[in-house]
Prior knowledge:
Blueprint: E1 3-7, H1 9-15, H2 18-33, E2 37-38, E3 43-47, E4 52-61, E5 66-74, H3 78-82, E6 89-95, E7 100-106, H4 107-126, E8 133-137, H5 141-153, E9 158-162, H6 166-180, E10 183-186, H7 190-194, E11 199-202, E12 221-224, H8 237-242, E13 244-247, H9 250-253, E14 264-267, H10 268-272, E15 286-289, H11 294-311, E16 315-318
Parallel strand pairs: 1-7, 8-9, 8-11, 9-10, 11-12, 12-15, 13-14, 13-15
Antiparallel strand pairs: 1-16, 2-4, 3-4, 4-5, 5-6, 6-7
Helix pairs in contact: 2-4, 2-11, 4-5, 4-11
Amino acid sequence: MTELLILSRSDLEKVLTMKEVIEAVETAFKGLALGEVVMPMPYIIDVPKHNGVWGVKSALINTQDVVGVKLSSGYFENPSKYNLPSITGVVVVADSKHGIPLAVMDASIITAYRTGAVAGVAARYLARKDSEKAAIFGAGVQGRTQLLALAEVLRLETVNVYDVVQASAEKFASEMSAKTGIEVRISKSVEEALRDVDVVSTATPSRTPYIRLEMLSKGVHITTVGSDHKGKQELENRIYDAAKVVVDKREVALEKDYLKPHHIYAELGEVVAGIKPGRTSSEEITIMDSSGLGIQDAAAGLAAYSLAKKKKIGTVVEFF
Ligand SMILES: NC(=O)c1ccc[n+]([C@@H]2O[C@H](COP(=O)([O-])OP(=O)(O)OC[C@H]3O[C@@H](n4cnc5c(N)ncnc54)[C@H](O)[C@@H]3O)[C@@H](O)[C@H]2O)c1
């Protein structure tokens, strides 16, 4: 009998830790730089009729004999209009040695953790080691895991949170300060949130840049996850001219209008693999521009599958 493991959202919440996903994602980025990974370009199915979008991301990680494919949606009116999440979907993890599916799991938790993990890996190589103050823009699902990941790799003392919806920032502050033990302060403006901070994560679906160069402190590190594809932008163009910009994958990043080849210093995997140095001065502004890659889904999906098997969590179905 061949078994297929089904992992629901609550199963994943029981098995995944940010620490393990950061390790898995860091290894996957290194593998990407070293040519151990096959990753087709992601593709998008637009659903303008319902103001939504579907994305398909996939990768083969040869060193681990695993294929991961994610089908996930982005419907950003869902929370306010229908009390439904903005992002849902499934991740399939399969054994690439025999070509057999191993697990099907909720994509929203995998996405949140693997997207947070990029901020963690990037902060490890690009933020100043003495970073203590963070700012999070967008008090939604990704904003939460951005903070979890930053707290995992840095010794944070305070976090400013800014959201266009004040009630969301308030909920974030009470929930995340209890979860992390870090003081979370609600900011009333973008400027206030950025004042004297060392690390920033932007996790909003904004189509209009809202962070300007003058608002940034010297030596700040910023991870942008909200502007994950064409049409979205959170930092103004001048910031990309002034900063050291690291992307997850050149071809994917260059689909965005605000990034040109001359802006891109390195891919994250090149920095992790030591092919290019990360931060080299305490004064430079560094940016990790994340689009979200199939390797992150495959690596986080495999980590979830392995941990769930070990902890005997999930529903096993007879596949064939
Ligand atoms: N790079 C990646 O790998 C990746 C992965 C997942 C999601 N994303 C992107 O991240 C963004 C956030 O996703 P989410 O799942 O957290 O959504 P969400 O709906 O849970 O949260 C988004 C939050 O941003 C707030 N917001 C919107 N515009 C804002 C603005 N201009 N300034 C401040 N706050 C603002 C909203 O009020 C909301 O609280 C989306 O653009 C999504 O597509 C990227």
